[in-house]
Amino acid sequence: MASAAQMLIGGVFVTVLGLILGQRITSVPTMQSLLALLYLITFGSLLAFSVYGYLLRHVRPALATSYAYVNPVVAVCLGVIFAGEHSTVMTVVAMVVILVGVGLISFGHGKA
Fold it and tell me: What is the distance between the alpha carbons of residues 109 and 112, in angstroms, rounded to a whole number?
C-alpha cells in the first residue's frame, strides 16, 4: 500500500508541477503511445512492485534487489527482438558480466 500511495502522490505532484510550469497536451496521443502507457502501468508499476514486495518477503535482500541489474539486460534483449535495435560485442560482454554477477549473488551462501 505504501508503494501505491507514493506513486499516486508523486503522480499528482508531477502533474500539478507540470501545469504550473505551463506543460500542456497539444495533440491527441496515438494508439501506440496509449498502449505503451498501459504496458508501463501494468507491467512496469503494478506487477513489478507486487513481485518486488513478494521477493523482499521471501528471499534475501541482495537477491531481491538484483532485479535492478537484470532489467536493463531484459530491455536490451526486447529492443533487439522487437524494435530492430543493434547490439555490439561490448554490450553482450556487459550483459554477461551482469548476469554472472546476479548468478553469484543468487547462489551465494553468505548474508549480504
Answer: 9
**78 residue type, one letter:** L
Buried b (16+ CB within 10 A) or exposed e, 58-93: eebeebbebeeeeeebeebeeeeeeeeeeeeeeeee
Angle at alpha carbon of residue 26, lines to 23 and 28, rounded to 5°: 125
Across the range 80-109, mean pLDDT stands at 87
pLDDT tens, residue by residue, 36-73: 999 888 887 788 888 888 888 998 887 788 777 788 88
Is residue 8 helix, strand or coil?
helix
Tell me which amino acid residue 108 is.
G
Q: What is the pLDDT of residue 70?
A: 81
Return the amino acid letter for 54: Y
| H or E stretch at 53 | helix 48-58
Asked if residue 112 lies in contact with residue 61, where contact means CB atoms within 8 angstroms, the answer is yes
- 2, pLDDT greater than 80: no
Residue listed under C-alpha cell 504496458: 39
Give residue 47's identity as a one-letter amino acid code. L
